[in-house]
Protein: L-methionine gamma-lyase
Amino acid sequence: MEREFDTRSIHWMEPKREVHGSLTPPLYLSSTFVFPTAEAGEARFAGLEDGMIYSRLGNPTVAVLEQAVADLEQGEAGLAFGSGMGAISAVLIAMVESGDHILCSEGLYGCTYGLLAMLKQKFKVDFSLIDMSDPAKVAAAMRPETKVVYVETPINPTLKLVDLKAVSEIAHAHGAQLVVDNTFLSPALQQPLLLGADVVVHSATKYLGGHGDLIAGVAVGRKAFLDEVRMSTLKDIGAVMAPMEAWLILRGLKTLPVRMERHCANAMKVAEYLAGHEKVTRVDYPGLADFPQKELAERQMRGPGGVISFEVATLEAGRKVLNSVRLAQLAVSLGEATTLIQHPASMTHSVVPPEVRREEMGISDGLIRISVGLEAAQDIIADLEQALAEI
Ligand code: 3LM
Structure:
């Protein structure tokens, strides 16, 4: 019988417990691996024999992490990277060539936008951002040269959602692949491969690791495709995950479902508090009763996640809030135990040209993003209460 997600997030080690029966995975801090014979070395390079070669091409500790995340995302294989951007760039570069087009959700993490702008300028790979709330608009925006549909859902930082099942059907009908950035929810709350996505990418820096102590990325999808990425864009561009990072993420995975439950419960309380505050003019959070895509959130996600965006009347008022918090930490990143608060327009999305940011992505200058942590909800609320009182 297939075990439940909460069990699988802890019991990924058993078949691999080869050294001394160690409960946790051995940490192989080795850059290279000794071949038993010249013939074995040759066979490993030719892909005719399994076995380690060099830690840029694979590492036993990293391999445990790749398998564990693939299992949680219900994919055939996983591939680890030195950062979320390492995963996103390697996957996209492996999928496209000059003259191709990438169709994207209207909002994207700032550096993902930066990568696409660079691919367009230097390598003639075009991209467009479109509102995907109506699948008909996605179908209309597909071009003959569209090879990839690239989606964040929920979108960083506006929390708008994309219907993955509908969009995957459109992408496949046009011969394109769907890549989904699942960073904001983690596989505990959303499993895009089961909804038709071809590849899932993660900034493992966030909820997968969960403790704000590392930078890492993972991609999950079909084994044949990820083998190709491993031996091309990962191997030759080289954004590899270090074994220590893999080990720390494996430790984080054991508490992923429990952490996500608490992130969601805390964020729900904070969002409801913010929604009722007279100085808060807008709150975006998929768990709120009046969230515009409520039906989709309930159909596609197992929980609304831990990130909330909200607005206050002016940019100056927003700065006041950021400078007045005491418990929440004024920092970018998200998905860790500590509550983090930041200003997308001047921080995470500052690389996006202001007109694209405001008009296409819907990120107003007054928008504040909060990654609700695992502290007691009443303490997070009390902190926001005193900070909002400073306006
Ligand atoms: C942030 N985000 O604060 P790394 N995909 C998504 C992300 O949110 C991120 C990445 C990929 C933030 C980082 S801003 C300088 C700090 C949806 C990162 C990239 O390469 O692991 O950082 O992941 O929103």
The chain has two domains: 5-253, 257-388. DSSP finds 14 helices and twelve strands in the chain. The chain has a mean pLDDT of 97.
